[in-house]
Amino acid sequence: MDAAQEKFILRELSRHRYMALATVRPDGFPQVTTVGYAHEGFTLYFSCDSKSQKIRNLRQCDKVAAAINREYRDLSKIRGLNLGGHARILRGRARTHAWEVLAARFAEMADFPPTDPAIAFVRVRPVVISLLDYTRGFGYTELVTL
Description:
With about 150 residues, this protein is of the alpha+beta class. The protein is about 25% helix and about 40% strand. It contains three helices and eight strands. It has helices spanning about 5-15, 55-60, 90-105; strands at about 20-25, 30-35, 40, 45-50, 65-70, 80-90, 120-135, 140-145.
């Protein structure tokens, strides 16, 4: 990864707050849900109901994919990220750390303490990231392996 790619990725991660996250269901089909996220470098964190389908999916398979972008009126201006990686349901200090990172980005996290067992905290570590930048040409992408 070069410096321009790193800058693009970090800018897009900071610019957006929500991602479409795909997990693998027990029947092998993907399931996509929208989650709010915060990041620390290339590592992403999100929280959700500890009994949700995505948490059940992650307990069976840690592979995830995500799309991070916004809606564009002009197709020639599309910019965003697609990524594939591994997710881990966090415990202990790692769970508290995820809450701290999320709370710095989402003030409403104060209402969801890290000790609440009804809430799961998850870390996503990307393995590959596809940079989308249609300002450089329709369909332009660059694949970065981490």
